[in-house]
Design a protein that fits this description.
Layout (H helix, E strand, L loop, with lengths): L2 H8 L4 H12 L5 H12 L5 H8 L3 H11 L11 E6 L2 E9 L1 H15 L29
Antiparallel strand pairs: 1-2
């Protein structure tokens, strides 16, 4: 094994995997679909269940399960990260909002993303504009 291959085993976790690990610290059974749902709610607080379903490309029953899992009231599998509120002018529409625990996790995820480490760091041929301040090579968006 070359020294370069060995370095990759000990380097810092990439942002997407670090974010998923932070979510799994809240609940070790956090699924990738639940993580995506939570991230969409972080980005779009006040989003409706229908809008979340469109973003996730998921059926209504799947969205309901995800929201129940992220909310309170789902037995021992509830995460208490999100709460669903009914709109005062239309009882049929429920919007999704972060709880204080959800906001804390969002801040943690934001800090992970701000300190992003590239998923692929081959060190070869990346344009200078894609290098971080520490000199790490960032994978090109066009690759």
């Amino acid at each position: 094994m070359t020294a370069n291959q060995n370095d990759h085993r000990h380097r810092q976790r990439s942002a997407p995997l670090a974010a998923l690990e932070a979510m799994r610290a809240v609940d070790e059974q956090f699924s990738l679909q639940e993580a995506c749902g939570f991230l969409y709610i972080c980005e779009n607080e006040g989003i409706s269940l229908r809008e979340l379903g469109m973003l996730l490309r998921a059926q209504p029953h799947t969205v309901s399960r995800i929201v129940a899992r992220l909310s309170t009231g789902f037995g021992n599998r509830a995460s208490d990260l999100v709460e669903a509120r009914t709109l005062h002018h239309d009882n049929r529409v429920r919007t999704l909002h972060l709880t204080e625990r959800g906001r804390t996790l969002c801040r943690t995820l934001n800090s992970i993303i701000v300190q992003a480490v590239p998923i692929l760091d081959d060190g070869e041929g990346a344009p200078a504009a894609t290098r971080s301040a520490t000199g790490a090579t960032w994978a090109s968006a066009s690759a």
